[in-house]
Amino acid sequence: MAKELFNRYIWLTDTIYKSGRITFAGINSKWKRSCYSDGNEIALRTFHNHRNAIEEIFGILISCDGRTNEYFIENAQDIGRNKLVHWLLNSISITNMIRNSIFIQDRIILENIPSAQKFLGDIVDAMSENRVLQIFYLPFYKEVVLEIELLPYFVKLFNRRWYIFGRSSDSEVVKVYALDRIERLIITDHLFTLPSDFLPDNHLYNSIGIMSVAAVKPIDIVIKAFGNHPKYLRSLPLHHSQTEIETSADYSLFKYRLAPTYDFYQDVFSRREQVEIVSPQEVREEFKRILSQISKSYGN
Description:
Blueprint: H1 2-19, E1 22-23, H2 24-32, H3 44-58, E2 62-65, E3 70-73, H4 76-81, H5 83-99, H6 120-128, E4 131-137, E5 146-158, E6 161-168, E7 175-178, E8 182-191, H7 200-203, E9 219-226, H8 229-235, E10 243-247, E11 251-258, H9 262-270, E12 275-279, H10 281-297
Antiparallel strand pairs: 1-3, 2-3, 4-5, 4-8, 5-6, 6-7, 9-11, 9-12, 10-11
Helix pairs in contact: 1-3, 1-5
């Protein structure tokens, strides 16, 4: 029931947000076509209860213009800035759309994310109360399960895997752990204090993906993209620091300020012959070394 209520809050927020301004009758018209209504209207009292809950949970203010009797989100600009709320709106909006399109469900293909099914809910619960986790972790490179007392700082979804970032109770270094390598998890009664100056976005500010290695410093990197690939980079930038510094009919040059970690090289490699690392020379040489190692696997 709690999950259903939560989804209703998201549906209502998303409906008003996308409409800009909408009357209660307009909301009810959409509500009756949704997967939550069973064909019935939403009671005015229930609607106001939902409004209050949305403000309390998400900090989103649904106001009414007395002149037109239209409802609108007073602080709509905050939704764009709040990545979690924006992600929830998009995700559950798509889920609702699929549930309302039951007759074509087999024509809508989604990616399976196994790591979200087992421990993500418990980890989010622990984070919300700043509770220490005891995890039993089996990395791919070890055969022995590690027992770690973990202070969970934040989670991130990357390449179909969920990751948890935090530090162990005996270290000051924030490390990353894949949820699908956790064998068992216990939420303890021990509390921790998240450092007031710690921001997840800052932790990964210079990185692509999930790796933030202190030894790998951010540098200026220039990549040449050929053919139509500049369009892909413009629509979905490789990194937030991306700037297009040269444009021609055959290629474009993109400049980045980032740390060339493993995830960076993986991303560039996935683009194959459509991109080339132009500078600096040491990054070109490292990528050349990786390509040489791959080439050896395929012989001459």
